[in-house]
């Protein structure tokens, strides 16, 4: 009796999620300064406009989805912690790279040096609820 050679099938999972979620943290030169959620979002929007230009940033919105007609930018601030200056952003998959690159290049806020740190990125919001690097075992 002849044995058939083993056959393998490659299965590729394509993410059906429309969004990606980013956990970010703003580091200011003077740690005692706090900003509100409106200023936080405006800082990100100004970074997008500085990098891609006014027209390009608005074109990104139109290209992302027809459902976003009239929206200002292709991301939402879902949560914001004013004391830690951290937030969770929701962005369309097609705008993730542009948003990430503009966050990387933001270097000042109110004439003070600053930097955005991207802590986690995932297509699943639940994945941002825990971080194995910060987990403390007892």
Structural commentary:
By secondary structure, the chain is α+β, with helices and mostly antiparallel strands. It is 27% helix and 27% strand. It has three helices and five strands, in the order βααββαββ. A five-stranded antiparallel β-sheet has the order 2-3-1-5-4. Strand 4 and strand 5 form a beta hairpin. Helix 1 packs across helix 2 and helix 1 crosses helix 3. It is elongated, with a radius of gyration of 20 Å.
Give a concise summary.
The chain contains three helices and five strands, in the order βααββαββ. With 138 residues, it is an alpha+beta fold.
Kindly, what is the distance between the CA atoms of the first and last residues, rounded to a whole number of angstroms?
57 Å
Largest beta-sheet details: 5 strands, antiparallel
- Mean of pLDDT: 82
Number of strands: 5
Give me the secondary-structure category: alpha+beta
* Strand arrangement in the largest pleated sheet: 2-3-1-5-4
Radius of gyration, in angstroms, nearest whole number: 20 Å
| Shape label | elongated
**SSE succession:** EHHEEHEE
Strand % is: 25-35%
The low-confidence parts are: 61-72
Helix content, binned percent: 25-40%
Number of helices: 3
């Amino acid at each position: 009796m002849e044995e058939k050679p083993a056959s393998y099938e490659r299965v590729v999972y394509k993410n059906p999620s429309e969004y990606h979620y980013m956990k970010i943290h703003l580091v200011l030169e003077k740690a005692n300064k706090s900003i509100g959620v409106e200023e936080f979002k405006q800082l990100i929007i100004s970074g997008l406009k500085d990098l891609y230009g006014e027209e390009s940033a608005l074109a990104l919105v139109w290209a992302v989805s027809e459902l976003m007609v009239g929206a200002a930018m292709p991301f939402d601030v879902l949560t914001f912690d004013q004391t830690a200056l951290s937030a969770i952003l929701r962005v369309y998959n097609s705008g993730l790279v542009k948003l990430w690159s503009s966050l990387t290049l933001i270097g000042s806020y109110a004439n003070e040096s600053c930097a955005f740190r991207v802590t986690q990125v995932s297509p699943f919001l639940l994945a941002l609820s825990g971080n194995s690097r910060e987990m403390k075992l007892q």
